Here is the input.
Amino acid sequence: MNRLEDFIGQKLMIGIRGTRITPETVEIFRKTQAGGLILFRPNFESSSGLKKLISDLEETLQRKLLVAVDHEGGRVIHLAEGVTVFPDNWAVGNTQNVEYARRQGEIEACELRQFGIDLNLAPTLDVLTENFSPNIGIRSYGKDPKLVARLSAARIEAMQRNGLSACAKHFPGQGHSPLDCHLDLPVLSATPEEMENVHLLPFREAIRSGVDTIMTSHPIYPELDSEKQPATFSKKIVRGLLRDQLGFRGVVLSDDLEMGALKGICRIGEAATRAIGAGHDIVLVGHDPEAQVEVYRHLLKAYRENELSRKELEQSAARIGRLKEKRSERFPQLRLSPGIDGFNLARQMAKGGIRITKKTSVLPVLKYQRIAIIFPKLSSLNSRILIEEEMLDEGRFVRQLFEERGVRLHAMRIVNLDPDDLEIQEAGADIKQSDLTVFFCYDARLSAQTKKLLDRVESLAKYKIAVLLRNPYDEEMMSNETCVVSAFGFRKVQIQAAVEAMTSKCLQTV
Here is the structure.
């Protein structure tokens, strides 16, 4: 590889549409010479289908790709079979069990490598604060930076020891972001001392652990860069802080340039040039073929006109090449076959992650005769992220969980994630006719309609339990008369753990 076009292509990681290669897919890769492929939920039909997709694409292009996926566990899982569905990081953080994180890394390395995946864009090293975090939240290991550092380092080391590259994200830390970068551009005003003592600590530990890649974040950090550039465009943050001060020598990736955080600043071609100029090795353009071609052409022009350094391009290509060499075997022989071990580990994590607060005297639910359940329609998410097969029929799944624990339900209502007024009104009838209402709350902070339904439960229910799924910060909206069970996620094992906790006669509360 010595053509300028080939070098530039190595700096692109792009997503594709569908579960099979098409002439359009091949044409995009030939137009951009992209060296990286990122997989999403729509690319997965079956285990064999995914392997064929990767093999067919590489065979047609006659070159090896760097294949990546966001496989964080919990909320962010795209593969529908052949992987253990672990709970969210915050649940794991609640256990404070480093061995759990190590075993998770070991298992997911073996599972992802069997699909031919080289790079897991995980774990999330963002440290939470007391402020509500709409995007990171349960994706983080929690609020203790030392705990986040220990758990993430153990998982990274285990992944990489078993043949899967890891990615520490989102540098320099956005656990305190009040906005979601997918939609908006946050400005994070943490002091340099706060950044050093809280948010950077896990990244320092990840670098010491030998993490192969680090992904940056989009927010503006005015205390780290006085020019108030988004971190994606900031030489002070990428070159000065990450490379020079922290000494990271691996591959630096941008977050997806298509996110709303950058759209109001410049076109995506310019965004790519500014990100590369800041020091990124790879820029991620996940979805739009036109944007992917625009990025490539803009970079080609920038290098030809010496706006970007060709010497740095060659150095960057060498780093990417070393990363690819580590994962040169596409479908390696597995040293482990996780099977039931993975599921048992996920159950242990979920059970250890449950927290019960506020009016705990409401429990256990076994003492009530007429119990109403309100549960969100999680199946509506299945086109974007994995929803486990057993949970696609939510009513059957939840009813069976309670019946297995000896609880017969009086009423079961499945509501949309953003329920309309009629759904809320009809739920009110069930609440009035019941002794106990159990409301599985998806996210009352981000949905005004879910908050309205929560208020309905609060005002009408004689006794009530709120099971918090996506957003544990929702507890702040609950009255002291509501028992709160925080599951820190909505995966099957987490909902099972919540039901077991509610029906147990030996309660452990915090």
In short: The two ends are 59 Å apart (CA to CA). The domain at 4-326 is CATH 3.20.20.300 (TIM Barrel). The chain has two domains: 4-326, 354-503.
